């Protein structure tokens, strides 16, 4: 099979298109012929050696993909009844996290580091560690779901609890945030979006965003968002910025509201007014992607509402490196995808 490997060191220059022997499914495993992979910011950090500098190489990057079951190992059908050759599936992000709390061992089984990932023609997974792809989605669309969409769903609907009429704030217009916009709308919320680009804010409004604030031209965007939400603040914040944006998110959220800490796009350390959190009973929750159970619950909602992921651009397999560069440049809106195969 052909695969992209990070070998000999970190950095995009160390991504190489290589030939590897076709893997074979062992007992309880399935072989998936991948048709598309999508790129998360995490995958870029992984390639750059900034996510886990101790990651063993070579590594096939990327956690997210979609394809068809090409073969079943012995006993695979008993583990995942109904799974057939030809079934359209997506591997789950943390292969060992089927449900419950994110225990240490379970979340160490993530694709695209430490385990080999989806930027390859074939992948072997445990039979219970893949989920059916929604029928109305193409492989390119389904490949966007396992990390970014499940993270947004977990923040809004599992760890968090958005109710119809709530106001949700999504920071930026990358993969997680555009899913947060779409899924919050699906759950009946009104959504405020921030972005560095007025054009992207216009696109967010076309998708159904209620309001948009440019965080470059309005540095005190937290206060602006609070005013937009009637003076009290928003019910939920999808916080992908981290250290630099958290103080503004605290300005934007209402007393008793929730901030889901998801990403560190704008730095890790934060100077936070702890008193403001406790005096206003704000719930600050960390969110780590989600389990297979979360993924399946989200898929039911996606199928019911025929939600289509926003794919910014699809790159051919041979141009995977350019796909990473495109994401790193931050010009995308939604998800960046790589098509696998011809
Ligand atoms: N906790 C988890 O389980 C989990 C899961 C998935 C992702 N993450 C993390 O979540 C973050 C987003 O991931 P992603 O894959 O969605 O990334 P992405 O698609 O690359 O999104 C990048 C976008 O974020 C926005 N952004 C960048 N800096 C910002 C800032 N200072 N303030 C507000 N928005 C900013 C920009 O939007 P505009 O261009 O509109 O300005 C940029 O285009 C990353 O830190 C990632 O590691 C965590």
Please, could you describe this protein's structure?
- This protein is α/β, with parallel strands linked by helices and 342 residues long.
- Helix content is 30%, strand content 25%.
- It is globular, with a radius of gyration of 20 Å.
- The relative contact order is 0.15.
- The mean pLDDT is 97.
- NADP nicotinamide-adenine-dinucleotide phosphate is lined by residues 40-42, 147-148, 151, 171-177, 194-197, 200, 215, 240-241, 244-245, 262-266, 287-289, 327, 330.
- NADP nicotinamide-adenine-dinucleotide phosphate binds at residues 40-42, 147-148, 151, 171-177, 194-197, 200, 215, 240-241, 244-245, 262-266, 287-289, 327, 330.
Number of strands: 15
- Helix-strand makeup class: alpha/beta
Arithmetic mean pLDDT = 97
DSSP strand (E) fraction? 25-35%
Instruction: Give the low-confidence spans.
Output: none
Overall form: globular
Number of helical runs?
Answer: 12
SSE blueprint:
Layout lengths: L1 E5 L8 E5 L9 E11 L1 H8 L15 E9 L3 H4 L8 E4 L12 H4 L14 E5 L3 E3 L6 H4 L2 H14 L8 E5 L3 H12 L3 E6 L2 H10 L3 E4 L6 H8 L5 E6 L6 H7 E9 L12 H6 L3 E4 L5 H14 L5 E5 L4 H10 L5 E5 L3
Parallel strand pairs: 8-9, 8-11, 9-10, 11-12, 12-13, 14-15
Antiparallel strand pairs: 1-2, 3-4, 3-6, 3-15, 4-5, 5-7
Helix pairs in contact: 5-6, 8-9
NADP nicotinamide-adenine-dinucleotide phosphate binds next to helix 1, helix 5, helix 6 and strand 9.
Task: Provide the descriptors you would attach to this structure in a database record.
342 residues; alpha/beta; 7-stranded mixed β-sheet; binds NADP nicotinamide-adenine-dinucleotide phosphate
